[in-house]
Amino acid sequence: MSAKSSPNNPDNASTDGPPVEVLIVDNDESHAETVADSLERVGFHCHVATSGTDGAKRLEEGAFDVVVTDLVMNDIDGLEILARAKETQPGCEVILMTGHGTVPSAVEAMQKGAFNYLLKPLSLDQLRAIAEKAAESSSLRRANEELQRRLDEKFGFEGVIGTSPQMRDVIQRLQRIAPTNATVLIQGETGTGKELVAQSIHQNSPRKNKPFVALNCAALSENILESELFGHVKGAFTDASTDRVGKFEYAHGGTMFLDEVGDMPMPTQIKLLRVLENGEITRVGSNDPVKVNVRVLSATNRNLEDAIEAGTFRSDLYHRLKVVTLRLPTLVERSQDMPMLIDHFVKLFAGEHGKRIKGVSLAARRTLLAYDWPGNVRQLRNVIESMVVVDYDGLLDVDDLPEELADPSTPPDTSPSASLSALVGQPLAEIERRFIAETLNMTGGNREEAAAMLGIGERTLYRKIKGGLGIGD
Questions:
Q1: Residue 369's closest CA among 444, 458, 465, 455?
Q2: Exposed, middle or buried, 87 (CB in 10 Å: 0-12/13-18/19+)?
Q3: Is CATH 3.40.50.1110 the classification given to domain 13-150?
Q4: Engineered SS bond to 178: which of 100, 204, 248, 355, CB 3.0-4.6 Å?
């Protein structure tokens, strides 16, 4: 069915950009045409399939934003159309309609990913309204996928999240560093993600199919650390009952990450220097060198130059380790990334703990943004996981915050009540302007997230920004 001209309606989502492509699948041709005509009157571009088989074929051949399908059909039923739509083009939304509605069938449809479930005879106004929402949902999902694709291309490092200027600088350096064999010294406070960055370097390097081995140098005594790094032979010490391969041999061809390298004992530093200079290790208790091909990444939250002056770290090893130096910003320094990190961790832990979390309240976000985060991203990650675990109503709010963030000594200007008091007596337009401006600031200018927090559509938010609120782009 060809599309009819769209009405000049600025509030109609289907008129912004390309027309919304809708597939209507129904054995009843007359009913299908009625549905198509109704949707085309408000600007949708409709295609009609008069059997489940035809509908399934159309799904394989074309791309659709919305599928409206009858539930009961003679050949392939609506649930199968739903399944095939989700398989072939997961970005589309599926609306099921039936004259044989039951609670179990509706529940099954929604569980399998249907956007909505309508009973015949249809209310055409209701159908249009739901189709508009389905189109918006499909558009948003595709926009998110496209944004993620662009972010992956521009900032494409697995697990490294952030678009702040500080993180863009880090990721640009990672893109240059990863393909090489250079040793890298990663500096940053505890919890800034040093091991994550090391893993990212490995995963984006030619060594990605070989082992990535991490070892914390501060957690082991000198003898155990040397055995862990270089291995030992039988009889090398009291408990050495068999030969043992060390981390360097195990990581051959891959990457070794030495965390807290600044705490490495001086005798072990000498042996590590030999590995970096000659590519050889010698197992504890042996005199036979073993060749290894390992890229070394190291990390520390200590100032190694101070340690060199204090005589606890070798200057020659320092310069071997820091062919490239990468400093990771604190969470406060990259506060612009907070909304993205919060949403990432909410999604991660909601899935991990089987919780249905629909969002984070504005008050909770304010508190999270106002906190100093001495433990950086690691602390934020732990706090979000705690909130997800203790939540009972699907909305992460201030009552889900751990004690250290719920401290009543929080400055009053960050509390929702203080902000509300400051708005008393102001014109409604000014209140709306300030709320929208502050929400956009909180989300780092992310309109999609700001609209979700404000409970309005992204297009509505855009119109308000472009309108008389004085917010600008």
A1: 444
A2: exposed
A3: no
A4: 204
> What's the gap between Cα 398 and its chain centre?
23
CATH (one of 3.40.50.2300, 3.40.50.300, 3.30.710.10, 3.10.20.90) for 165-327 = 3.40.50.300
153-167, 179-193, 306-320, 373-387: lowest mean pLDDT where? 153-167
User: Do 3 and 48 meet the contact criterion of CB atoms below 8 Å apart?
Assistant: no
Going by C-alpha positions, the residue among 266, 267, 232, 264 that lies closest to residue 248 is 232
- Residue burial 371-384, b: 16+ Cβ < 10 Å; e: rest: bebebbbbbbbebb
The two structure tokens encoding residue 68: 């409206």
Residues whose CB is less than 8 angstroms from the CB of residue 324 and which lie 6 or more positions away in sequence, other chains included: 173, 177, 182, 183, 184, 185
Q: Which CATH class is domain 331-411?
A: mainly alpha
Residues 4-33 pLDDT 10s: 333 334 344 444 457 889 999 998 899 999
User: Which tokens hold the place of 357?
Assistant: 């979390």
With both helix axes pointing from N to C terminus, report the angle between 124-154 and 447-454 in degrees, rounded to the nearest 10: 140
Pairwise CA distance, residues 169 & 172, whole Å: 5
Alpha carbons 219 and 207: distance in angstroms, whole number: 27
Q: CA 115 to CA 86: how far, in whole Å?
A: 11
The single-letter code of the amino acid at 456 is: I
Q: Check pLDDT > 80 for residue 303.
A: yes
Domain limits, the chain: 13-150, 165-327, 331-411, 425-473
The Cα 14–Cα 65 span in angstroms is 10
Give yes or no on whether 13-150 and 165-327 have one common fold.
yes
Q: How far is CA 142 from the centre of its chain?
A: 16
Give yes or no for residue 419 having a pLDDT over 70: no
Q: What is 425-473's CATH number, 2.60.120.10, 3.20.20.30, 3.30.1370.10, 1.10.10.60?
A: 1.10.10.60
* pLDDT over 90 percentage in the chain: 43
Estimate to the nearest angstrom the gap between the alpha carbon of 59 and the chain centroid.
29
The angle formed by the CA atoms of residues 467, 470 and 473, to the nearest 5 degrees, is 80
Q: What is the DSSP letter of 20?
A: P
Closest CA to 438 of 453, 455, 460, 456: 453
CB-count exposure of residue 456 (10 Å: 0-12, 13-18, 19+):
middle
Whether 62 contacts 47, CB under 8 Å = yes
Looking at the DSSP bridge assignments, the partners of residue 204 are none
Residue 265 preceded by cis peptide, ω within 30: no
Total residue count of the chain as it appears in this document? 473
Give me the percent of the chain exceeding a pLDDT of 70: 84
